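Q: Start with the shorter request: fold the first protein.
A: Done. Sequence, then structure:
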Amino acid sequence: TCFYVKMVDDKLPEVMKLLSEMLLKPAFLDSEIAKEKGVVLEEIKMYLDTPDEFTFDAFLKGIYGGHALGKPILGYENTVNAFNNKNTTAYYKKYFAPQNTIMAAAGNIKQEKFYELVEKYFGGWEKGNFTPGLTSPGFVFEHEKIEKKLEQVHLCLGTEGLAFKHEDRYKLLVMNEILGGSMSSHLFQEVREKRGLCYAISSLTESHTDSGVFFVYAATDKEKLPELVSVIKDELEKIKLNITDKELVRIKQQVKSGYIISMENSVNRMSRLIKQKYYDDKFLELDGIMEEIEKIKKEDLMGFAEKLFVANRMKLLTVGPC
């Protein structure tokens, strides 16, 4: 859960006061809970009517094998309906405590001033006695079909990825960009531009404390599905042998440029600070990230792909007409 505000710098004291009131003195009125449940239930319906979102969540639920990481953030209709003042308050008291909280700020703010405001408005926050434990997921690679009345078949094909602080995480970022990170990627060029098998195709990564996933998403006509799956698998095999120096230079520049541009947004900077503290308990400056990306060689990537893409450790999920 993340509470954040973006504001002009002179409003920071007022915003910190407001955030402290929200976090430390929540009311959880039954009337407000009832209204919010209605909003979330409508959001769940909207998500169920969005094929790509539904497919992503179904894939994560399946590959994580019932682990909490595979559960939808919105929850389910029955769990949302079960919320009331009593159990919401109990959840808040159990989990919302300073030892489970990270505070960060980015932008026109001095560190000393921020610390001063945190102490002023959150210094009296009573420490709780519960710290959530972590359990690693057990990955499941069985293929799944979910029949749903849609015009296309939506698919995810993927495997176990990397934890946030894994030493190969920058190799995964570069490999993801090569495979399906842009319109110039291998998958987009081969699947869409050359063969016309789908309109959109991309590869994605998700990283957590001690685990992660890598997967390819696409949607196509039912009749084209076998060829689409075959071509995607072929591209995952080709990358083990086929990365040129020229391409690697271009892709590394793309990845580095993406990092630099994202850091122009103060919310992105704040989010990166929190993630690095939470997952790694240390901060790597932007120059350090650029160095890690730059030192990657094509032999590193091809060897990494050999370890990542193993035929019997790939999960395929399809949603749509079966």
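Q: Next, the second protein, separately.
A: Sequence, then structure:
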Amino acid sequence: MPQSEITTIICGLIQRETIINRNDQVSIDRPGGHALYAASGYALFDNPVGIVAKVNDKFLEKYGKELTQNGFDLKGVTPSTRPINAMQYYRINAPDQWETSNIKRHFYELGLEVPKFLLQQDIHTKYDSSTIKAEDIPLLSSDFPPEYRSAQAVLLTPMSFISHNASIPFLKKSGVSTLMIRSSPSYMTPPKLPTIASLLKGIDFFFTTEQEIRTLFKSRFDRYEEMLSALKGFGEQYCIIKCQKSGYMILQADSTQICVVPDYAVFVIDPIGDFDCFCGVFAANYAKNQLPVKECALKASAAASICREGSGIDYILQSLPALIRMRAQTLYRQLTWCSLSSLAN
């Protein structure tokens, strides 16, 4: 059987996660990270999806077959020349609060033995200067395999500013017609404000969060509406914002109206990766299925709600399409519109 053509590429970090969620359920050493959460959301609507990322040399040996079976094309996932500090630990305490340290205490509180690899990783992280953080690995044009040349859409999940900024000219030159960026907190800071406009010029979709926007503009503006007005003028066609309290806002460059897409209310077990999942679902429905922006966001919000009800990419990949459709239909009836001037600060 001929291999399916790759139409969409997702770039970003791949990590190995251990999570204790709010139900005290423990998920040990599972594949995760921004790129895989986004790819899992994408795979609910289309596959295969091409992934570009750097990993440690044993990662593909351990997880490659499993990820390929889930609809991920891994030709762009290659071993790093330097060891990567790719282990990530989360102890979820609340819908928007988690810890990434105190591993021993959390396991002992549950009466569980701490996995040896986590103890070794803790020592390794503290004392071994030879490792590199996953987010510090630059994204290069040579990281994109020839098999991905026909791709028409690219989603850049959170990486360094250098990686995002350097890859865009190459991708445009390669014929990519839809460019999507999910911002990184690492560069959504006041010192980087003068460079953000050049990054976003000509981008189709910029996914970011209210908190990151407020941080970026905090030394420039006091009012949130002023921040959004400035962001709209940076050259991106659409800006999709995850709100602090709930839901998402869709800002279009040539419109004064804001579409507000609600969250589907659930009991949050684990929020890790929910916005990455949102971005992946949105990318699949826009780039592959060619749905209107509003409908893409509704399905993305519905899928993100499912992501919050469990832990890891495995839980996302088990989602039922009928459940996503049902939740999206419910959210459609809750859509609202507002203007910049009506936003509270």
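Q: Describe the second briefly.
A: The chain has one domain: 8-84+134-342. The mean pLDDT is 93.
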